[in-house]
Amino acid sequence: MDTLVVIFIFGCVGALWMKRKGRFPILGLILGGSLNIFGLLAIYFIKDRSSIAAISPLMDSNVLKPSYSGSRFAQDSGKGALFSYASSSKGNVLPQDYAIVDLETSGLEPSGARVIEIAILLMNAEGVILEEYATLINPGNGEVGPTFIHHITEEAVSTAPTFKEVAGDILQRLDNRIIVAHHAAFEDKFLASEFRRAGIKLPPLPALDTLWLARQVVELPNYKMQTVLQKYGVAEIDLHTALGDVRALASILPKLLTLLPSILYPVTHSAFPAIPISGRQKTRVTNLKKGEKGWISSLLEKLPENGSEITSEIETDYLELLTKVLGDGKIVGEEAKALSKLAGEAGLGRNQLMQLHEAFIKQIRVQAEIDGNIDPVEMKSLENAIKALSL
Question: Which CATH number fits domain 83-259: 3.30.420.10, 3.40.1280.10, 3.40.50.300, 3.40.50.150?
Fold first, then answer.
């Protein structure tokens, strides 16, 4: 009924217009009606195609899959500033040894910003984590950008190694491995800039962008890292820390790889220049909470697996602080934060801290056994220390 009314109204308008022009009104009626029928048919076909797309979005894979094009995103077999990206159809087969990389930076573009933290997680083809490495980086200009996002302060980076100082440590972990990052163009441009600034020339590195990989194998409304993690039920811990992000990515990488078993690379591994290894690190602990496991367990979980070697000076300082905070047989929040700060300044990792805790317990036990007998008070003190240190 509505369609007939529309045709009638526009037909009348056409008739009046023809009459004013001195033409036959019937011509205007026919012309107006014809135009309306043509327009309604066009609307019908447009609406019909939209309905089909809405009802069956999977008929067209582009309905739900956003387009990620341009230099800001990795393309199939594309070439970045330092990375040569994976392909599903052409290139070389490489051993599935991965170095998952994440950076925290003082800004979004390397032209005006610097790397202030790096984490690298090494993983093999079976998804076994081989090593964790993380360190704060001194940008050299004292600028850290939005601290409220990454929680890195100017004070924290002032005693951290520079990128040039740890360039050899970084390259040792990237050597003969496929670089993995989510939205890898970000890491690509910053690493290229930092190595260039350090005077180090590198060959193209084979790289796998998990944003690109996820787009090949799953349908999602978007491919932000948080969205992909949610798809696989992974809760991201320590958001906006380099170590937290590589750990989250490591939890989903094996799942994504099984869905696209044939991944090729446009380049093979090439020899790196010989750069000295410094062994310097500065680790950090953020968002420290007691949780269900206690302060020390939370502290240990937030540190990378390994850090700098324990020097006699660091051992003395840490054990003295531990003796002080365990004077009452327990560790509270501010005491745990003081321990984490000292551990971070020394660049210690989880393994180093556990060695120090074991040395502390051994020290208490030796002192208690000096007289050949551990009395009830000494035993209680030992038990409290073991519990507080989660040993």
Answer: 3.30.420.10
